[in-house]
Structure formats: structure tokens, C-alpha cells
Amino acid sequence: MQITRTIPELRAALAGYLRPAFVATMGNLHDGHLALVRQARALGDVSVASIFVNRLQFLPHEDFATYPRTLEADCARLQAAGCNVLFAPAEEVLYPEPQTFKVLPDPALADILEGQFRPGFFTGVCTVVMKMLSCVQPRVAIFGRKDYQQLLVLRQMARQFALPVEVVAGETQRAGDGLALSSRNGYLSTEERAEAVQLSQTLQAMAAAVRSGERNLAAIETRAMEALTARGWKPDYMALRRAADLQPPKPGDALVVLGAARLGNTRLIDNLEIPTTP
Ligand code: PAF
User: Fold this and answer.
1) What atom in ligand 1 is closest to the CA of residue 57?
2) Which H/E stretch holds residue 258?
3) Catalytic residues
4) Is 176 domain-assigned?
5) How many domains, the chain?
6) What's the pTM value of the predicted model, to 2 decimals?
7) What is the CATH number of the domain that holds 7?
8) pLDDT tens, 185-223?
9) Is 177 part of a structural domain of the chain?
10) Per residue in 7-48, pLDDT tens?
């Protein structure tokens, strides 16, 4: 694997390839990221990963300063997964001057759910991903379904700017008990880690209620919020939405159930797609 730190180094490493396939990450890699890298290997003639902790997508009170930076271990894991090229720019390389031009996503999609609780988050994500796509110029970019709303926002960005890249979804990887793999799982204490599975189990219970024909979606959401709160969580939202655009669903729409909740000091998110409503 070639490790590149600057845009010219990256471009030189990719010269001559016709179909780079790209996975953007903030590092602290787990098996979920590595599954995306393996997908990139299958979809492109060269696989490229980036590691960059993007200041623009963190609110002042969030964990930008403490976000785990584990470059050496990440390189070993990428190498083992068969990644060909890593782009790991320093902040001065990606943002040599203050990034005053930003990509402003559609508020209908980006100011709800995650965007409501993390204002500006998707502007930061879109801006860095646009810049990464401009540096790497991939034909395929793979983003995990674990960040379902991010996947939809980035798909819409690629479509509306006619970016010459195909956005492909990667499946969520889960631990044996069902907890979605996430870099932030590393913040959990042993007791919290045991409890954390309740988030995916609550999403499962919401999906089961829909599948069993329950029509009052607001009641299902309220029950889920109350169930987590009773166990000591602080849920931001537990929401049943239309899978295509995260708007309130109409009968017959494919649904997704999304949740975000804080366990101790750690904020976890997860989602589950429900292909058809009964
Ligand atoms: O999903 C992430 O890790 C980040 O939001 C991304 C896409 C790498 C942009 O910084």
C-alpha cells in the first residue's frame, strides 16, 4: 500500500488507473471500514482510502480533539485488507486556508434527524467529501449504510452536481450481539458495551411493530424513546421514515427506522431498513 500525504503524491499514485474506487474515513478503522475497502477492491482497478478527521463536521462541544488518531494501526489494517493507496493529508494539506467555500446540502434532507441535533454536520461532511472526491477523482465511492442519512445526502450531492462518481452503499457490519460497528464504540465502558446492543434491539422492535401491522408510527417512536430512557439512555430520536428521502412515510412506502441516543458520554446511531410496509 502506498501512503500519500499530499495531493500531487496522491495523483501520481493513481496515474494510469481508469477506475479508482474510494472509501473516505476518519480513521480508527474497524471491520466495517475494512468491508468497504474490500468492496472498493472488487469495484475498482485500484482501491483508495482516506484518513482525515474533518474539523468542519464537529460542533464545538463534540469530540474533534479527542477523536482517536491511530494512523499506524490503521495502515496495518488497510494493508491487510488489500488497500492499494492511502491518502492521509495533514489539516494544512486539505485546508491550507480557511475553508470558506462550503457545500450546502438540501435542508429538507440535511436539517432533520442528525442535522437537527448536529447543526452544520452535513455541510461539513459534504464539503470534505466534495474536496476528497476532487483530490482522488474516483469512479466509485463507497459509503456505509450505518450512516444512512449521510449516504442519502452524499448521493443527492453527487447527483445534483453531476459528479462523475457512482455512490455505492456498503452494508452495516455488526458485532455478534448486533451492535453496529462504529469507531465511537471504543468510548464505551464494559458495562456500557453490554447495554449498547439495546439500540439495535429497540430498532428491531420498532421494525417488528410495523411488520405486524401497527399503523400509529408516532406511538411506536414514543414507545422506543421511553424504553431507552427507562434504561438510562438519552435518545435524540427514534424515527420511522420513508427510506427514499427520510420524510414522513405514506402507506406502502419502503421504510427505514433510525435512532440516535447517548449512553453515558457516547452518542451512538444505528438504523434498519424495512423494505415494504404491510
Ligand atoms: O463517515 C465518516 O467517517 C465521515 O463522515 C466521512 C464520510 C469520512 C467524512 O469525513
Assistant:
1) 10
2) strand 255-263
3) 33
4) no
5) 2
6) 0.97
7) 3.40.50.620
8) 999 999 999 999 999 999 999 999 999 999 999 999 999
9) no
10) 999 999 999 999 999 999 999 999 999 999 999 999 999 999
